Amino acid sequence: MHRTQAHRMPPTLRRVRLTIAAIVVGALAGTLGLASALSATAATVDPGAWYVLVNRKSDKVLDVQGHATTDGSPLVQATRTDSTSQQFRLVAAGDGSYELLHRASGKVVDLWEWSTADGATFRLYRDLDGANQRFRLVDQSGYVRLVNQHSGKVVQVAGASTADGAAVVQGTDTKSYHQQWALVKVGSGTAPTSSAPPTTTPTTPPATGSWPSATGQQKVSSTIAVSGTFDGRLVRYYGISSGGQDESQPPMFQLSDGAVLKNVILGSGAGDGVHCTGTCTLQNVWWEDVEEDAATLKGSSPSQVMTVDGGGARSASDKVFQHNGPGTFVIKNFQATDIGKLYRSCGNCSKQYARTVVVQGVTVTVPAKSLVGINPNLGDRATLSGITVVGDTSRKVAICEEYRGVTSGEPTKVASGPSAACGYDPAAVVYR
């Protein structure tokens, strides 16, 4: 039976919580449009506010199918109307998690049948204080991922759909856009919509620690080939892929030898980011949510140079920059937040080369695992200077790691720290 595992709270505590909920419902009735427009994070949840949950990929909101209020009613996504069927209050459970109280029904969001399988549905049910009715909020770039306490999986839109009526289910956490939700107080605007690009090009990049605002949006259905100079005027390009870390995703941009890509924001569904097939330059390019990789140097000439100057990347569960071809990769005046690795020379490409990486004036904010990974046995060399690491009080982020590169199988990590191959001064690394 569905409820046999639920742990009921003490009757007195339960009555107190329900009484508080009733008071808040009465006090806030009819106040749509008066609530703050601020979006909440895990640290800023307002216990007295009603929220709509806006999906980052679809811009649609969490709703109940058919606006039903009965036990077992499934959750879906829908166009935002701010009806009470789309409003939820986050009720603290006392252990750092929250229940999602549905305004129209007074019921809570429930992981149905205590399932731990991907694709299991979320529905309304009376509050039994079960672990399957509790969610932990994990912040990501102004949005949150909702992790169910029972299953450890996250709330997502089935199939990464953007259609009204798409089911809301659970899935393994891949940090994909369809798993991210903005907690927006009732009465405020939805996620940004498309707008025309400006007639002038921004020339001054934002200061370290800040990120540019998109001047417009453009959905991409196939890879954009660039020869010469492409100035994006800080338009957000999105939608070539469905998100996640799947291998062999198409790149958003493919740069031919000598190409320049500048003033571009890569948003949701950026696929494999940017591919360079020879010498290329990226100026003031920003990745809002890295998927497979942010950018990859391919090509076949030892004289080719890929230069990344300015810009930033965040939410890269693995690598930001991948170096598959030969030549030199230069990363300077760059910032990265919430990443696995900043740069990796391919450890197991079927054709290997000696590669060089130069890192200058880069700021990395934790969480992060390492800055640079190279294969000295293949002739790789790294030079790093002007490195700043933010938030790493224990100094666990590796600055430069050495691997034994191979042409098949998996590379083996052999060393970490300064060496003849990893050229940097540990005393010059700034921690703040």
UniProtKB/TrEMBL annotation:
Record keywords, A-Z: Calcium, Lyase, Secreted, Signal
Enzymatic class: lyase
GO cellular component, one term: extracellular region
Molecular function (Gene Ontology), one example: pectate lyase activity
Enzyme Commission no: 4.2.2.2
GO biological process, one term: pectin catabolic process
Position of the signal peptide: 1-42
Annotated compartments: Secreted
InterPro entries: Pectate_lyase_PlyH/PlyE-like, Pectin_lyas_fold, Pectin_lyase_fold/virulence, Ricin_B-like_lectins, Ricin_B_lectin
Cofactors, names only: Ca(2+)
Biased composition (Low complexity): 188-198, 206-215
Segments forming domain Ricin B lectin: 49-184
Primary location group: secreted
Reaction(s) catalysed by this chain's protein: Eliminative cleavage of (1->4)-alpha-D-galacturonan to give oligosaccharides with 4-deoxy-alpha-D-galact-4-enuronosyl groups at their non-reducing ends
SMART domains: RICIN
Region Disordered, annotated ranges: 188-218
Family membership noted in the UniProt record: Belongs to the polysaccharide lyase 3 family.
Protein name listed in UniProt: pectate lyase
Organism whose genome encodes this protein: Cellulomonas uda
